[in-house]
Write a structure and sequence with these properties.
The protein is mostly loops. Helix content is about 15%, strand content about 10%. It contains four helices and ten strands; from the N terminus they run ααββββββββαβαβ.
Length: about 250
């Protein structure tokens, strides 16, 4: 059968490059042959037609102008999906993409992440620079190893309690005060709770002391937080004694 319904000429150009057919009719067979499609920074705004690429496993569409990802809903073989720096708001089309292990949605306009709750094969998830206030739908994603949530509107991190496989966690630039759930994340190697202009509202770091996994070679960034005296005088020295590299602002006198 023949198929050439691409509303976006930049997407069509990327498809043609992938199938090595610069002109002529694009057939459904051509589209079924595509396993990987890399089209970053291509000024793509409409991905209608990509649903015919039913065998896609890797899709790179970062740094475009995409707001509607509905055509992705049937691409259930996808394992790697890159959509950072677009204008995506609605993630409902991703809810059935349960083979995903890598998902990058940084720098979009996302507030509701409920559709991600079933993507339990994810090992890396980037949701940095969005408008997320409720991260609780991530609570069941227990295979996650790397989670980026920098610069959102998160205050409650109770959802982290079960994510014990996390090795790298970025939470800087939120409104977090209570670190209690982090005490259980014993596989953490890199923990960012602050950074240059990216703090939280954390004063008590007792849960980090209670985390028996934080040890030699691990990194914790606490810059930009209003740490209490106990953090400065007791907990940070104790963490450093365990070999943890701790970054923090100088104590104010």
């Amino acid at each position: 059968m023949r198929f050439s319904q691409f509303d976006d000429p930049n997407l069509e150009a990327a498809i043609r490059e992938a199938i090595r057919k610069s002109e002529g009719v694009i057939t459904e067979g051509d589209l079924r042959s595509i396993i990987e499609l890399k089209a970053p920074d291509n000024n793509i705004s409409d991905i209608t037609g990509i649903e015919k690429c039913v065998n896609l496993k890797m899709l790179m569409l970062y740094e475009n102008q995409i707001n509607d990802v509905a055509p992705l809903s049937s691409l259930t073989r996808l394992t790697d999906l890159w959509l950072r720096v677009n204008q995506v708001r609605d993630l409902s089309a991703l809810s059935n993409l349960t083979n995903l292990t890598f998902l990058n949605l940084g720098q979009n306009q996302i507030s509701d992440i409920t559709p991600l709750s079933n993507l339990t094969n994810l090992t890396l998830l980037n949701l940095a620079y969005n408008q997320i206030a409720d991260p609780s739908p991530l609570a069941n994603l227990t295979n996650l190893k790397r989670l980026y949530l920098r610069d959102n509107s998160i205050s409650d991190v109770a959802f982290l309690s079960n994510l014990s496989n996390l090795t790298c966690l970025w939470l800087d630039g939120n409104q977090i005060t209570d670190l209690a759930p982090l005490a259980k994340l014993i596989n953490l190697e890199k923990l960012y709770l602050g950074g240059s202009n990216w703090g939280n509202s954390i004063s008590d770091i007792t849960p980090l002391m209670e985390n028996k996994g934080l040890s030699e070679g691990d990194e914790v960034n606490l810059e930009g937080n209003p740490l209490n005296d106990e953090a400065y005088d007791v907990h940070i020295p104790a963490l450093k004694k365990r070999g943890v590299k701790v970054s923090f602002d100088p104590k104010q006198h």
